[in-house]
Design goal:
The chain is mainly beta. The chain contains 1 helix and 10 strands; from the N terminus they run βββαβββββββ.
Amino acid sequence: QVQLAESGGGLVQAGGSLRLSCVASGSIFRGNIMAWYRQAPGKQRDFVATITSGGSTNYADSVKGRFTISRDSAKNTVYLQMNSLKPEDTGVYYCNVFPVLPWNAWGQGTQVTVSS
C-alpha cells in the first residue's frame, strides 16, 4: 500500500524551475505538519521545508526565497515549487510528516538534477 508518492522531478538547467508533488494517504496527511526533505549524493537526508495544517511554512536557509511549499487538503497533496534552481539543489526529494520518527515509512522519492 503506497502511502507517500512523490513526482515531478527531472533534469533542469541552473536557474530553471520545477514543481514537485506528493500524494499522501489520508492517515498521514490529515492534521500533520508535512515536509519536504532532500538527500544529496553521499549526504544525509535533510529538511527543506515544512507546512502546518493551517498553512504556516518554514524553510531551510538554503532555499528561502526560492522554494515555496503548499498543500491541498482536498487532494491530500503537498507541493514544492522550486525556482532559481542551483546545482547544489540536486538530490532525491521526499515528502513525509515532520518530525519524522523511526517507524515512519518513506516513499520512493523523486530525483532532481540541476546542471550548471
